[in-house]
Design brief:
Length: 299
């Protein structure tokens, strides 16, 4: 049971990184990115290929994952930045599916449905059974460091410009801000952070396969951020841990609901998550930790 709880806390930390990534692009900049799973996959595969086929160190795998996902974010932004929100959402969702299909079919590179196994984790062999607990501490440390960095970014002049673009990009442009440049930077940073989360995921599980990166991950992260508080980095982390808690705790409800087959019970769990989100939004329309705008700079 202890190993199970450690694993769930580790996955919640990785979801927290994804929620911070989404909050950067959606909560601050107001750009709807339904391709989060795609950037997550790009980072995971880039790191896995670097450390397995390439035989490079783990740290270099993390760096390659961040760069690969960030570049993907730049390219996608240049293609979609002038689209309206609804079209942007559709294109980014299509991007995520394209990435998954490439991972599934380009077997010469990704090994297709067999996935990539044997991805090295930090000190996995030396730690043995203690690896899971040590990696949890590492994941929490990475989450805390990332939270501190994105919170500092939110309070910076860059963050204030992103909020201005979110509220009214025409006003921001009239004020002399290069809206396209700021959107490009925000999307690249968000994609790079999602890629970083993918690399951490691969190093923890030591195995990745295309089916892991389906659009359901993006939906879970949107649920986490909406429930936690859009625009609030602390709320994003809180929402990620709550979503994992609800998803995993409902696994033990099967004996209470007799007569359902596996597929029906899985569907019921998804309905329960959605219902809980509706309850949260009815009680706290802006999320559990609503965004609090920082005070304007003095002078």
């Amino acid at each position: 049971m202890a190993n199970y709880l450690i694993a769930m806390a580790t996955f919640a930390s990785i979801y927290g990184l994804l929620a911070l990534s989404l909050n950067l692009i959606w909560g601050l900049a107001g750009m709807v990115n339904l391709g989060l799973a795609g950037f997550f996959a790009v980072g995971a595969y880039a790191s896995a290929l670097t450390t397995t086929a390439g035989g490079m160190p783990i740290v270099l795998g993390l760096v390659v994952a961040v760069i690969a996902a960030g570049l993907a974010g730049v390219v996608l932004t240049l293609v979609t930045v002038r689209l309206r929100e609804d079209y942007l959402a559709i294109v980014t969702l299509g991007f995520a599916e394209v990435v998954r299909l490439i991972a599934l079919n380009e077997t010469w590179l990704t090994r297709g449905a067999d996935g990539i196994s044997g991805i090295p984790g930090p000190f996995r062999e030396a730690l043995g059974e203690r690896f899971n607990f040590v990696f949890l501490l590492l994941a929490l440390a990475l989450l805390g460091l990332t939270l501190a960095l994105v919170e500092r970014l939110r309070l910076s002049p860059f963050g204030r410009v992103l909020r201005a673009i979110r509220d009214d990009q025409q006003v921001a442009a009239v004020a002399g801000k290069n809206v396209l440049a700021f959107k490009l930077k925000a999307f690249a940073l968000s994609a790079a952070l999602a890629g970083f989360a993918g690399a951490v995921y691969g190093q923890y599980t030591s195995y990745i396969v295309p089916d892991i990166f389906d659009p359901l991950i993006t939906i879970y992260i949107f649920l986490a951020l909406t429930a936690g508080g859009t625009g609030n980095n602390w709320g994003a982390v809180l929402g990620a841990f709550l979503v994992v808690l609800v998803l995993e705790s409902t696994r033990f409800m099967a004996p209470w609901v007799p007569g359902l087959i596996g597929v029906q019970y899985a569907a019921m769990r998804e309905m329960l998550v959605g219902s809980l989100l509706i309850v949260v939004l009815m009680v706290r329309p802006r999320g559990l930790l609503p965004e609090r705008l920082p005070a304007p700079p003095a002078g």
